Each structure stands twice: as C-alpha cells, then as structure tokens.
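PROTEIN DATA CARD
Card holder: UDP-N-acetylmuramate--L-alanine ligase
Chain length: 286
Origin: marine metagenome
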Amino acid sequence: NFGSNTLSGSGDIIVVEADEFDRSFLSLQPSMSIINNLDLEHTDCYQDIDDIKDAFISFANSSQLDGIIGICIDDTNVKDIISKLKLPYRTYGTTSDASIRADQIKFSGFNSSFKLIQDNEFIGNINLGVPGKHNIQNSLAAITIALELNISIDIIKIGLEKYNGVKRRLEVKHQLKNGTILIDDYAHHPTEVEASISAIRKSFKNRIITVFQPHLYSRTYNFYQDFAKALSLSDVSILLDIYPSREKPIKDVTSELIYNEMLKLGYDNILLNKDISLIPKMIQDV
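Structure generated from the sequence above:
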C-alpha cells in the first residue's frame, strides 16, 4: 500500500526482497530470512535445480548467528534443503506439520480468510483482501517473522487486513458493468502463472480469458511444456509473441511451442496473436 517500491520508515528494521537472479542475493547477510518457494528459474545463471538449491542454502546459512529462517514446507524443493541449514528455522505453510499454519482456508472474490494455528494451537482468525493460496503463504511468511519480532497477533491481524496487494500482481485494472474484470499480472514463470489463474478460478465463477506474453526466449524454450499445462487452467488463452527483454532470438523458439503443446494436451481454446492491436476484438469474439 506504499504507492512505491520503497518506503523509508522510522524503525530500526530494513525489509528487503532478495532476488536470486545473477546470485545477487548472496551479497546479503540478513538477521532473518524467508524462503517461500524454490523453482528452476534463471537458467542463464543456474545450471539446474540443484544449482539453485545450493545457492539458496548459501543464502540461508549467511544469516547472522542469532537470526532465524522462515521456511515454507508446502514447497517440495524448499523442504529438500532443510537438512542442510545450519541456523535455527521456523516452518510455515498449509500442511499439518507446519509450526505456523493456515487452517480452514476460504476464498470469496478478492478476499481470503483462514484460522491461524501456532504449534497446534489456534491463535486468531486472519482476513486478507487478496485471493489465492500463494497469498495465504505470503501472509504466513509475514506472520512467522512478525511473531519472532514479538509483534502481537492483534497488530498482525490489523496489518494484514489493510494490505491490498502490489502493482501487477492480480491487479484489477477495470471492472465493467456486465461483471467482466480486467486483471493485470506479471506472472512470467509457469508456477506463477498456475498460481494466479488458480487464485482467480477458486475465487470467481467468471469465465477466464488469459492473454499471455512469454518473457524471454530461454524461459519459453525451457518451460514451454509447463506453461502449456498452467495456461490450460484458463477457459480461453491468447498467446502473444515473446517479449525478448535482454535476450536475442533463439532459432525456432516462438510462442508456437506453447501453442502446439497445448493442442497436444487436448486444449483447443487457444489463439495466436501477431498484432497486439487486435486483442480487444479477439476477446470480444470469444
């Protein structure tokens, strides 16, 4: 709710979003850290999933000796690195073995709620103004660190109720009188795409039309099969040309890789778009 990607407060705590791209997060030595999920990504920087796991292990173990690590045990890859952590950690998630967990999760429109359990004891009802299981997990991450900082559950609940999301993460751009909702989301990895579409699917009864522009040739090549599975959660998908960003074209790597894979999966409600100006008409026609 800051209206910016930075905020200068008056306290003695600095909160940073660490980015694993180009291993820049290894320059940090946090007092506390959170590892929410771990996927194969940035294949121009990492050889494989084990290389990424090793980097996250180094990141977690670089925390100060009196610190603590928050670990989401819903994620299989995150669970895999727990045995190699050298510092104290606290688990959170939606499974029964999590120390901090969400129970009886409910979704309704852009609202979510759950019962907060700490070490198998109920400590409060949590209400969020954002949808999706991934946002439940994000809130549990914040709760885990807040409790370690001895912030009261009442203050935590108030803070979470005020949170209304961030720009380009399930951001509502327009709502039409006919019930159509136009949402902008920056999901550019298959796991993120699946999480965003699933969040909308669980919270609304509307038909879902996804307009997707792949980001990077290398990412499209490495994950086109996973993108196809994720996008198949939509009722209709419109694929745009790849956004190259920092990359040069790779021979035979186009959005058609995803398109053809979706057809193999038996999903035929998909359109290829070569002219962005035609998107409004394409949406209207479907």
